[in-house]
Design a protein that fits this description.
There is one protein chain. By secondary structure, this protein is of the alpha/beta class. It contains 10 helices and 8 strands. Helix 5 links the parallel strand 4 and strand 5. Helix 1 runs parallel beside helix 3, helix 5 runs parallel beside helix 6 and helix 8 packs parallel to helix 9. The longest helix has 18 residues.
């Protein structure tokens, strides 16, 4: 199995459809397999939410979804998006999606998980901020179809010492359908995850980490951040793709018998020094 790489554009398009299309073209050049957006509906966010302005500014219209999906197709990458509520499911099905992403914030929502399970062929769910029991219960719901649980640490960005990749090993004991949603800057931990045998590697993408954007807070104690600041630029994705391809080649095709070239070596060197004499 070769790991598929998901470039998460999220809200890095800044509400600009032309910028979004440009980002698809740029990340497609790196060799990723999938480009992902987020399909929230700002109208459902409470007026008291400090991030409501951000959600309103970066919400993708129905038309934008169709435009971006076509742009992905033109550039040889798959379009994927995150669904946040049941009411958005009919539209995303109409968009022609067979695969859907669910954020960590919804892993514990059993009603929502059942709804996406019933409406999409494949469900990819991140498990950041989730308890062991919540993860196990989510798997019970999802296992009736194709699914992947993504190891994820919901700290933006994630310090490398908190990547907790041993948790990914624990997750592989629960289910063979495992991926990794990476919030650690750079390619090192992403490459490690690929070497651990994951189905999907997801990582935030931007063309410019210093691009201006409406900021948001992930908690009351956190400083405001922008999605660009926690994303990585094309060179990082190129390195991840390069490593992924090398790893897949080195893993081979599960050859159990010796290679023909080895047989010749065996004949030449076996008993050269008279082992039994």
């Amino acid at each position: 199995m070769t790991t598929k790489i998901i470039a998460e554009i999220a809200s890095c398009h800044n509400g600009d459809i032309q910028l979004a299309k440009k980002m698809i073209r740029e990340v497609a050049k790196t060799g990723v397999d999938i480009v992902k957006f987020q399909s929230w509906q700002a109208g459902l966010v409470k007026d008291s939410d400090p991030d409501k302005k951000r959600y309103e500014k970066y919400e993708l219209s129905d038309e934008a979804h169709f435009i971006l999906k076509k742009e992905c197709e033109r550039n040889g990458v798959e379009f994927l998006t995150t669904c946040y509520n049941v009411g958005r499911i009919p539209f995303l099905k109409k968009l022609g999606l067979k695969k859907i992403k669910v954020s960590s914030t919804n892993l514990h929502n059993k009603t929502f998980l059942k709804a996406v399970r019933d409406n999409f062929k494949e469900v990819i769910v991140s498990m950041g901020m989730s308890t062991k029991k919540e993860i196990e219960e989510a798997i019970k719901i999802l296992k009736t179809g194709e699914y992947t649980i993504m190891h994820c640490v919901s700290i933006y960005p994630t310090p490398i010492e908190k990547a907790n990749m041993r948790k990914l090993l624990w997750l592989k004991e629960l289910t063979k359908e495992v991926g990794y949603s990476d919030h650690v800057a750079g390619f090192e931990v992403a490459n490690l995850a690929i070497g651990m045998g994951i189905k999907y590697l997801e990582k935030h993408f931007t063309t410019d980490k210093h691009m201006e954007q409406v900021s948001h807070s992930v908690s009351k104690i956190s400083k405001p951040i922008t999605t660009h600041a926690i994303a990585d630029e094309p060179p990082v994705f190129k390195e991840i793709v390069r490593y992924r391809d090398i790893f897949a080649k080195a893993m081979g095709a599960k050859m159990i018998e010796i290679y023909p070239e080895e047989k010749a070596t065996r004949v030449k060197y076996t008993d050269r020094f008279g082992t039994l004499k």
